[in-house]
Each structure stands twice: as structure tokens, then as C-alpha cells.
Design goal:
Blueprint: E1 5-6, H1 16-24, H2 44-61, E2 67-72, H3 75-87, E3 92-97, H4 100-109, E4 114-120, E5 144-147, E6 149-150, E7 155-156, E8 168-171, E9 188-192, E10 203-208, H5 226-231, H6 241-257, H7 259-280, E11 285-286, E12 297-301, H8 305-317, E13 320-321, E14 332-335, H9 342-359
Parallel strand pairs: 1-13, 3-4, 3-5, 5-8, 8-9
Antiparallel strand pairs: 2-10, 6-7, 9-10, 11-12, 12-14
Helix pairs in contact: 1-6, 2-6, 3-4, 6-7, 7-9
This protein binds pyridoxal-5'-phosphate (PLP).
Length: 363
């Protein structure tokens, strides 16, 4: 067996310890004589898995008691519709467009109400986060929506927008549990887990309790109503049980390392290694404004398409996989989520140095 360093943006690398534990428990979970995949979601064993996962997440993120934690399905993309359906009382919302995911969310919400795109960085290919200190927030906006870490472009909000008292809803799919957050500042935080937490198929939504009501847009399907899932503690129907089990293991793994403060330290150290290299390289260049750089998704180019392609294919031969940028932007992207070890980034930087020495004449 040989594992590669997997820089995929998602589904992405998971902690090896977690995968090994899951393998050990595959055929017989805690003397139940069956795999977690095979057990009833109403069984005692699964109930415990779900309750501990929620408790551990609450502890890690210090989620206040007046917030519900929901384990849902449908990917982050399904939330693009659920959010307006559940929260658009005035049928008006403000969106800040910092990339494709925010754009898609706004376009979807537009089916249900009036959307104001109050800021955007589309003018410079989403390579920065707009100034959000004094936006024209709509007086009767039901919420302000952001995508906090832009997976495709490699930008991240370092300061939350001034929403002028409106509730903030944030897609944190690609920065979930990468550093401490102040949950109180949000009406809702959500993300698909396949970037930084677990297997695809689970979406975690953390929502302030008073926002979860029966008052949803007419015609909202039962399955797309937060209250239904909140009242049933994520067991209205069969949840993505195995995925939740793996998420639970990842929560314990983060706890064992020291929690989100420690994650932040590790992630900063990894990102610094790579960004410092990019900043002095004659061949490779980062593609986003320095102060908006993501700790999770590092985007860069050589400036020459053929050289980018050569780099990606040679890196793959050296066990550094999935470094190709998103199909919409090209270049390279190294996703260095929580589970990517420091050694993985060291290997990448050494490889980049070597590649630069061998190929610089071509630039
Ligand atoms: C990947 C991603 C999505 C889409 O997730 P799906 O689970 O595929 O729907 C949405 N937002 C962000 C920030 C992402 O990184």
C-alpha cells in the first residue's frame, strides 16, 4: 500500500488515523456484529454515534445552546435553495459575490425573492475579497449571505462583513473547523463536509434557534424545511449514517490534537511554507491578493499554460496528486486541509523548487 499526498479540493484527504480506525471497525462495530453501514439509524449504537458527534462538534466550535446542529444531505448546493425557502420572510436578501459558489447561491435564491448583489469581486476574476465595511445593505433584507472561503479562487474573508444588524449566513464548506470561529456572529453557518471533515453526503448546518420556524415559503418540501430536521434531531428520515460516523471520528481526531486553536496554528504553518515559497519564486506566482489568501486552498500559476500542465503531470508522477486548478480558472491549486500533514506541503515545495531549477529557462 502506498498513499499519495492528495491535494484535492474535495472530496479530499482524511486523517489516516481515522481511516484506519474505520477499517478496524468495518466488519464489527463495537461488538454489534455489524458495520455502521448496516445498522438501523434508530439503533442504540447509532444514536450514540450521532449524539457524540453533535456534542464533540459543539465543544470544538463552542456552539452556544441557542443554536441547533443539523446533519443534512443534498450537498452544500441544496442549501442554496433551502436558505431562501426557510428564511425569506420579506422575500429579499443581500449576497456578496466572491466566486462561483456565492454566485450560484444568489442565482438559486433569485427563484424565491429579490436578490441584491451588494458587492462582488468578479471584476478581477474573484482574486480578492471586496471591502465589506460599509455596504448598501437593504433595509428589509432577511439576511446577508457570504461564501467565507472561496475554494476555487483561494480567497478567504479575514473579517466578516458589516451586515448592519442583519443576520449573516455563511457557507464555510472549505474552511470548516480550520480555525476557531465565533458562532454568535452568524445566523447560520453551514458546509458540505467533503472538503475538510468527512465523506461526501453530509452537510452540517448550525442555525440560531429562533430563525428555525414553521413560517417558510409556501410549497417548501418537508425535506427542505429546517424545522422538520431540527424537531427530529436530524432523524426525520434516514440520515447519511456512515458519513456522520466518520465526521464524528474526525471531530475526536481534532480534539485529540488540541482543538481549533491548534488546527489554526498548523494550518498557518503549512500555508506559510507554501506562500513564502511562492513569494520568492521566479517561476510560480500566487493568484490572489495577499491579504485575502486562504489557508486551505492555495492557487498559483507559472504564467505559461504548457508549463502548468507539465508541472501537474510531473508532480503526479512524484506522488503529489490533484494539483490541477478548477476547470473554470486553470493553473494550479493545492488544497491543504486539516488532514494534510506538514510533510505533504514540504514535499510539494521541494518538488516546486526542483521543477523551477530544471525548467526556469522556459518561462
Ligand atoms: C464544494 C463547495 C460547494 C458545493 O458543494 P456540494 O456538496 O458539491 O454541493 C459549495 N460551496 C463551497 C464553498 C464549496 O467549496
Amino acid at each position: 500500500m502506498s498513499r499519495v499526498y492528495n491535494f484535492s479540493a474535495g472530496p479530499a484527504v482524511l486523517p489516516e488515523e481515522v481511516l484506519k480506525e474505520a477499517a478496524d471497525e468495518m466488519l464489527d462495530y463495537h461488538e454489534t456484529g455489524m458495520s455502521v453501514m448496516e445498522m438501523s439509524h434508530r439503533s442504540k449504537a447509532f444514536e450514540k454515534i450521532l449524539t457524540s458527534a453533535e456534542q464533540d462538534l459543539r465543544e470544538l466550535m463552542q456552539i452556544p445552546d441557542n443554536y441547533k446542529v443539523l446533519f443534512l444531505q443534498g450537498g452544500a448546493s441544496q442549501q442554496f435553495a433551502m436558505i431562501p425557502m426557510n428564511f425569506m420572510k420579506n422575500k429579499k436578501a443581500d449576497y456578496i459575490i466572491t466566486g462561483q459558489w456565492a454566485k450560484k447561491a444568489a442565482d438559486e435564491a433569485e427563484k424565491y425573492g429579490e436578490i441584491h448583489r451588494v458587492a462582488s469581486s468578479e471584476d478581477q476574476k474573484y482574486s480578492y475579497i471586496p471591502d465589506c465595511t460599509d455596504l448598501q445593505i437593504s433595509k428589509d433584507a432577511d439576511y446577508v449571505y457570504i461564501c467565507e472561503n472561496n475554494t476555487i479562487y483561494g480567497t478567504k474573508y479575514k473579517r466578516l462583513p458589516n451586515t448592519k444588524g442583519k443576520i449573516l449566513i455563511s457557507d464555510v464548506s472549505s474552511c470548516f473547523l480550520s480555525e476557531p470561529v465565533d458562532v454568535k456572529k452568524y445566523g447560520m453557518i453551514y458546509g458540505g463536509v467533503q472538503k475538510n471533515i468527512g465523506p461526501a453526503g453530509v452537510v452540517i448546518a448550525i442555525i440560531r434557534e429562533d430563525l428555525i420556524t414553521d413560517c417558510v415559503l409556501p410549497g417548501t418540501p418537508t425535506m427542505l424545511t429546517y424545522k422538520v430536521h431540527a424537531d427530529a434531531n436530524s432523524l426525520y428520515n434516514t440520515p447519511p449514517a456512515y458519513g456522520i460516523y466518520i465526521c464524528g471520528k474526525v471531530f475526536k481526531w481534532i480534539q485529540s490534537l488540541g482543538g481549533l486553536e491548534e488546527m489554526k496554528k498548523r494550518n498557518e504553518r503549512k500555508a506559510k511554507l507554501l506562500y513564502d515559497f511562492l513569494d520568492q519564486s521566479r517561476m510560480f506566482h500566487g493568484t490572489v491578493r495577499k491579504e485575502d489568501r486562504s489557508l486551505m486552498n492555495v492557487t498559483f500559476v507559472t504564467g505559461k499554460k504548457e508549463l502548468d500542465e507539465k508541472f501537474i503531470s510531473e508532480a503526479k508522477k512524484s506522488g503529489l496528486e490533484n494539483l490541477k486548478g478548477h476547470r473554470s480558472v486553470g493553473g494550479m491549486r493545492a488544497s491543504i486541509y486539516n488532514a494534510m500533514p506538514y510533510e505533504g506541503v514540504q514535499s510539494l515545495v521541494s518538488f516546486m523548487k526542483k521543477f523551477e531549477e530544471e525548467n526556469f529557462k522556459d518561462v
